[in-house]
Amino acid sequence: MSEMNTKDFLIGSLIGGIVGASAALFLAPKSGKELRSDITEQAQAAKEKTNQFTTTAYEKGNEWATYAKEKSSSIAKVVSDQSNQVVEKVKGATSNLKAEAEEAKASAEDIVGDLAGDVQEAGEEIVETVKNEVDEIQARVEEEKPVG
Fold first, then answer.
1. Is residue 1 one of the residues assigned to a domain?
2. Which domain holds residue 43?
3. Do the Cβ atoms of 26 and 40 come closer than 8 Å?
4. Which of 58, 101, 121, 147 has its CA 20 to 30 A from that of 21?
5. How far is CA 71 from CA 68, 75, 79, in A?
6. Nearest Cα residue to 21 out of 1, 41, 7
7. DSSP secondary structure of 76-116
8. Over residues 49-53, mean pLDDT
9. What confidence score (pLDDT) does residue 147 get?
10. How far apart are the C-alpha atoms of 71 and 141, rounded to whole Å?
11. Does the residue 101 lie in any domain?
């Protein structure tokens, strides 16, 4: 079964009521004066009910509009607050990462500097050792040279 629109239902009910009341008045065995009086009374009653329905619909519409406005405002505030919190967390994480990257860079530079110094010292020691060994070999070679 398809969904019935409330507005269409109310309009149909109102029209059906008016038609039914009119038919009852016209089919009743009354004099013209009584019939006109009854029609006038029924028209007034229908007019009052229509005004009541209109007023009620207007009030309910305003209530729902106010409710929707309050809820959307509340939701917008919550979303804004949460967005600000996320932005702050991202900023904090970014600054922490930046600080950690700078610390890592400084540590790497220290290690490279230490290694460079160690490598240079080791290189100098190796050069000195090789030089001494070459001198020793040269001295042995000169000692073993036959004179003459």
1. no
2. 7-144
3. no
4. 58
5. 5, 6, 12
6. 41
7. HHHHHHHHHHHHHHHHHHHHHHHHHHHHHHHHHHHHHHHHH
8. 87
9. 56
10. 102
11. yes
Question: Is 2 among the domain residues?
Answer: no
Give the type of residue at 62: N
Query: What percentage of residues in the chain have a pLDDT greater than 70?
Result: 92
2 φ/ψ sector (left φ>0, alpha ψ -120 to 50, else beta) = beta
101-129 average pLDDT score: 79
The first and second tokens of residue 75, run together, are: 């939701």
- Among candidate residues 48, 40, 10, the one with its CA nearest the CA of residue 22: 40
Residue 21: partners with Cβ closer than 8 Å, 6 or more residues away: 42, 46
**Which of the 8 DSSP states describes residue 28?**
S
Whole-number average pLDDT of the chain = 81
Q: How many domains does the chain have?
A: 1
